[in-house]
Amino acid sequence: MTLILHANVHDIHSACSQAALEQAAAILLGGGTVAFPTETVYGLGANALSESAVSKIFAAKQRPAWDPLIVHVASETMLEGVAPAVSAIERELMRSFWPGPLTLLLQRGSQVPLAVAAGRAKVGVRMPAHSNARTLIELAGVPIAAPSANSFGRISPTTAAHVLEDLDGRIDAVLDGGPTALGLESTVIDASADPPTLYRPGMVPLEALRRFLPNLAVFRDSAAPQAAPRESLPSPGVGIRHYAPRAHLGLVEGADIEKALLEAIAASAIRPLGVLLPDDLRIAIPKHVEVVCWGRWQHPDELAQNLFAGLRELDRLGVKQILCPLPPEDGLGAALRDRLQKAAKKPM
């Protein structure tokens, strides 16, 4: 069984929270795995400088070796051991967005095992803003490699209970710090590429980054989704099916989203059927359809916070198909669309 530890994010200096954090740090230093909350989603952590510890992440998640990890740091000193050569523009981005949900692809230092970066020269690095995450990394005293704490390809976890749904008994501990605040993973960019490239849209929107990188390009994978790509992925979170519920996910789009969603419900012959429904869409849902409220359509931050929890709840209700409207592409809508479109893909 996985050990459950509790650290209250609102009272992190209490004796109970400190004891939990210290125990979690000791597990990490001993080569173990600990799931912990960040401001985005829960991550599955291991000592990023230990090849044997990192291998336990891949084993627990059943994650293939071609999919790289993100390394989490708590200070500039710790960053130097992970990525010793940082450019001026990368420093500027760190000053503007760290701690926070921006991952930078940086030149990998020799201390970081090749497995962390899936054999590539660059490794994803970020400094989380969540107090539990930062304190845990500080107590461990080493950078922590941490992809999302779920089975590979499944819905990312935003609570400790979600982690246990997938990984109970497969990891050493989960540090329960309550629900995550943002709900979607970090934005991933390579600022030193030519041109600079956004690999994964996330909680830092493209528009904010283009103030620093006007020629920032968006990565487009033209290849068909595959169960096993021919080479390692250039970044975490690209190229294959991710974030997927057990139910088939159908995406709905249209100028009149209410009409389009009603038409999709009427056309679906799959039962039981579920809908991830924005709170402020004024439509009458048939009684046979399971509904999970998603948040207000005009407030993409609410949709982001609730997306993964909503998909997991519809899976829990046992539906065979989920219908979900696709938000507009601007701002956080780009990250929401990315997650939903990847969740709906079927590998060949």
Give a brief description:
With about 350 residues, the chain is α/β, with parallel strands linked by helices. The chain has helices spanning about 15-30, 50-60, 75-80, 90-95, 130-140, 160-165, 205-210, 255-265, 300-315, 335-345; strands spanning about 5, 35, 40-45, 70, 100-105, 120-125, 145, 175, 185-190, 195-200, 215-220, 250, 275-280, 290-295, 320-325.
What does this molecule look like?
The protein has 348 residues and is α/β, with parallel strands linked by helices. The chain has 2 domains: 216 residues, DHBP synthase (Alpha-Beta Complex), CATH 3.90.870.10; 97 residues, Threonylcarbamoyl-AMP synthase, C-terminal domain (Rossmann fold, 3-Layer(aba) Sandwich). 30% of the residues lie in helices and 19% in strands. The strands form 2 sheets. An 11-stranded mixed beta sheet has the order 1-8-2-3-7-4-6-5-9-10-11, sandwiched between helices. The protein has a 4-stranded parallel beta sheet with strand order 12-15-13-14. α1 crosses α5. The mean pLDDT is 94.
